[in-house]
Amino acid sequence: MLPYNSTKSASWEVKARAHKCSETGEDFEEGEILMSRLRTEQGGLVREDYKKSCWNKEKQGESLFYWKTQYRSPPPKKEAAFKEENAEETLRQLVEEKDESAVNTIFLLAVMLERKRIFIERGVQRDAEGRQIRIYEHKESGETFLIPDPELTLDQIDEVQMEVALKLGWIKAEGEEEKGEEEEAVAAQLHVLFLSTGNACRSQMAEAWARSLKSDVITAYSAGVDVQKIYPQTLNAMAEVDLDLQEHSVQHITDFKQTQIDVVITLCDHAHETCPWFPENAKVVHVGFEDPRHLANTVAEAGGSEEEQFEFYRIVRDDIRRFVEGLPDNLPEA
After folding, report:
1. What is the rounded CA–CA span in Å between residue 224 and residue 204?
2. Does the CA dihedral 16-19-24-30 come out positive or negative?
3. Can you give the C-alpha Rg of the chain in angstroms?
4. How many Å separate Cα 250 from the centre of its chain?
5. How far is residue 286's CA from residue 196's CA, in Å, rounded to a whole number?
6. 86-142, pLDDT tens digit by residue?
7. Which of 1, 116, 218, 315 could potentially form a cystine with 214 if both were Cys, beta carbons 3.0 to 4.6 Å apart?
8. Which domains does the chain have, with CATH numbers?
């Protein structure tokens, strides 16, 4: 791909996701899968978003970058948790100011947001000055952020990271750490085991979401009552949301006899009714989710495509995420 023409300041941009198809003008629906692309125009980058029915090889060939994403209505504006010290708010301010002296800080903040799964990296490109530009998409708003990569050495990264963390109050200077509070926070975490029949899909998804979204309050595990290999569709569905389950293993409920478990959440009727053993003193609650494999097989028998079958894994994945996001406050009574 050829680098686009730009001045340095033009490389620092945020590209908002459209609410209508760039070709038909039709509104996107909540949760709709769409195609987004970046292309060059008059020395800069233009973002366009299309309904899948409008996407074709010609548009793909004209793109500098393209990717599949999901439309979500703009989230309500939240007050920054730390006001000016908030990572995302700080990054937005610095990008808007386009201060070249802040390039290291901007890059580090973007990397932090990627690790927190707020940003998704969509590609890398060099601008007219030869600088490497990383293209990030905001997971919730769909905005595209063009972030210069200063290509720091490991030593420089450590130094900048320390400066930023101290400046924003995320860490305390040496000798000021309050280890007691940190140890208490870990001890206070809720130990949750998600249980399904095979530990091949729903419980794996739930564990992954809990580890990603709730690691500050929950220690998550998953197991089955009749374990199977993790379904390839499970791996692919979670990879779409940047959660890698390749290293996950399947476990039987009895593997946790020596593990502290506070709550067992059964995700399917079969596991709830046939589980041979529940941890002593653990609260057991049932929150059932549809079996995507059963739904996919039903569609396959009716002649449905692989994409139509796979859509059920996406639906269940997203349903489980919404449940996990509410934990532990949304736990039903046992």
Report:
1. 10
2. positive
3. 23
4. 22
5. 10
6. 788 888 888 888 777 788 888 888 888 888 888 998 888 887 778 888 889 998 888
7. 218
8. 9-167 (no CATH), 183-325 (3.40.50.2300)
Q: Specify the length of the chain in residues.
A: 334
| Helix H or strand E segment including 44 | strand 44-51
Q: Give φ, ψ of 329 to 5 degrees.
A: -65, -25
* 3-state SS track over 295-325: HHHHHHHCCCCHHHHHHHHHHHHHHHHHHHH
Q: At what angle are helices 202-213 and 306-325 packed, to 10 degrees? A: 50
Looking at residue 158, what is its pLDDT? 76
pLDDT at 2: 29
- Reduced to 3 states, what is the DSSP secondary structure of residue 291? coil
Structure-block tokens of residue 315? 């639906």
Contact at 8 Å (CB) between 287 and 209? no
Tokens for 248?
């996950």
Calculate the alpha carbon distances from 119 to 116, 145, 178, 273 in Å: 8, 9, 30, 40
Q: Evaluate the omega torsion of the peptide bond into residue 328 and state whether it is cis, within 30 degrees of 0.
A: yes
Mean pLDDT in runs of 10 for the chain (334 residues)?
38 75 94 88 83 93 86 65 61 81 85 87 81 88 88 77 70 57 65 97 98 94 96 97 94 94 96 94 95 94 94 96 95 78
Q: Which residues, other chains included, contact 286 with Cβ-Cβ below 8 Å and sequence gap of 6+?
A: 265, 266, 269, 272, 332
Sheet holding 132-138, edge to edge: 13-15, 144-149, 132-138, 119-126
Of 205, 197, 198, 207, the closest CA to residue 236 belongs to 205
The predicted model scores a pTM of: 0.48
- The first and second tokens of residue 114, run together, are 């990627």
Q: Which two tokens stand for residue 326?
A: 């509410």
Owner of token pair 């998600």: 194
Distance in angstroms (rounded) separating the CA atoms of residues 241 and 265: 23
Q: For the purposes of burial, counting CB atoms within 10 Å of the CB of 295, is it exposed (0-12), middle (13-18) or buried (19 or more)?
A: middle
Residue corresponding to tokens 């709830």? 272
pLDDT score at 186: 53
